[in-house]
Specification:
This protein has 3 domains: 137 residues; 112 residues, Butyryl-CoA Dehydrogenase, subunit A, domain 2 (Beta Barrel); 216 residues, Butyryl-CoA Dehydrogenase, subunit A, domain 3 (Up-down Bundle), CATH 1.20.140. The chain contains 14 helices and 13 strands. Strands 4-5-11-7-6 form a 5-stranded mixed β-barrel. It has a two-stranded antiparallel ribbon with strand order 1-2. It has a two-stranded antiparallel ribbon with strand order 8-9. The longest helix has 37 residues. It is globular. The model has no long low-confidence stretch (mean pLDDT 94). Bound molecules: decanoyl-CoA (MFK) and flavin-adenine dinucleotide. Decanoyl-CoA binds next to α5, α7 and α11. Keywords: FAD, Flavoprotein, Oxidoreductase.
Length: 496
Amino acid sequence: MDFLQTAPQLVHPYRNDRTLLALLDRVIPSNSRPALDADLDALGDYAQFAWERARRSTPRTPVLTRWDAWGRRVDRIELTDAWHEGPDLTTRHGILAAGHEPHEHARLEQFARVYLYHLASEFYTCPLAMTDGAIAALKASGNQALIDRALPHFLSRDPATFWLSGQWMTETAGGSDVGRTETIARQDETGHWRLHGRKWFSSAVVGEAALALARPEGAGEGTPALALFYVETMDGAARKPELVVDRLKDKLGTRELPTAEIHLDGLPAWPLGELAQGVRQVAPMLNVTRTWNAVCAVASMARALALACDYAARREAFGRPLIEQPLHARTLADMRAEFEGAFALAFEVVQLLGRVEQGQAASHETALLRLLTPLAKLWTGKVAVALCSEALECFGGAGYIEDTGLPQLLRDAQVYAIWEGTTNVLALDSLRALGEGFGALRTAIAGWVDGCHEPEAVVPIHAALDAAARQWQASGNNRADLEAAARDLSLTLARC
Ligand code: MFK
Ligand code: FAD
């Protein structure tokens, strides 16, 4: 009989994740653990179920049907099973609601759930991230009418009343450079705002609401003249006729996520605040979705590593299991070190976000959150691609074969570095965050790392800070030099 290779098994993603367990043991009070553990355990069960289900089925992608048999425009989108299960799982486990509870660990408890749910959700977490971001932008706007209208849906714990929000920024003219937005906001004869234009990437087109950037008619050019609007997409069970789905994108990865090109043909809209400075108003959304991106990137790394480690104990080469081959063991250990660094950075941002939102942060922590958010996003995006690629190699040729499920990990990981701001855009945002200069920040970070329990661990951090400071000083006040150095500077800071 021919020799058969054993497939990797996905061990329980919660009970076996010593990195997550160690963080929760350290931070979450013991009286909060039983309820949290029950949720995380159930999400870990779902992750195992979803992995096994995907191994048994033919991959599916969303399908857009534009017209019905009688010539009516319907723009109906069929979704995958995980997407149908999304509203129930999200509301049952409070994946959005948990993050907005009034206590200091709300964000950590939420993102532990996100981390476990992400891959099983088939990127349903993408619209969840945008909905969470919309909550942040609406709260920051202080627009009580819109808050009262939308937040009970976004934070609902009942699938029947739960709504998703999109984030409509990218247009053909620019996704990084949203100051080139061409969508126009025009008032109708009754004074209501309506949006006209084309949004080029809409990843939550099946959602019930969205925040959209548009240029009020007659406003000037560029970023400051943009306004931020809240829209709703549904009229009862039907999509509003002023929202036309042109096409679903055929993507490298995230293939279960329906990302659409859409036309807005007079879609009713409500401004969040003043009819200008829309990018400033959407920034709270960007910072929240970038945090989700970092946590989800780390979740992809955790999955790739878990499968590679499991396989290393099953696969034999040269007379012993791979895990007993010193070089393979070293490869896995290096991957784990990269993963743990990325996990630490992403979850540091999560905890800072929680402290800032609950009004418990010291002033340097607010500055750190502003800087660490783009750094965590750009760093974890890059490391996720590298680590998933390395993990595929740990399976040899099997890692390259589609129905092992492994290639999808790499394809999906590539998106983390692109959406929500590319690596370069995030590096430039880090410069924005550094703002007044490197000195004040260096003091803040140094104070923060000096609280480390292991003093020797701080030595390389100070050395990396010194290197980054030298880079910053070398570029002086020359903007072109600063921008050219921004990626190196950001990667150095993020690593440190
Ligand atoms: C499953 C994983 C979860 C993730 C799901 C994600 C789903 C994917 C959905 C998307 O991809 S949605 C589209 C995301 N698009 C972007 O992220 C846009 C990328 N481009 C940028 O971020 C540019 O840097 C930006 C558009 C913000 C720059 O435009 P400008 O024209 O150079 O703006 P400017 O003048 O620098 O900034 C305008 C204001 O916003 C300034 O404030 P002031 O007016 O008070 O000076 C900035 O300081 C402020 N600002 C910009 N970024 C900020 C910010 N404030 C706080 N935080 C930020 N991050
Ligand atoms: P460009 O801005 O054209 O970038 C091209 C290259 O130029 C990049 O390497 C970039 O880093 C570099 N670059 C640009 N500006 C600078 C600069 N100043 N300095 C140095 N380098 C620079 N958008 C939404 O609004 N809503 C969504 O729901 C959504 N969903 C998405 C789903 C998927 C799967 C993908 C892939 C994208 C989605 N996007 C969405 C769009 C995404 O946010 C943009 O593609 C992204 O922000 C990059 O914009 P762009 O495509 O215009 O690239």
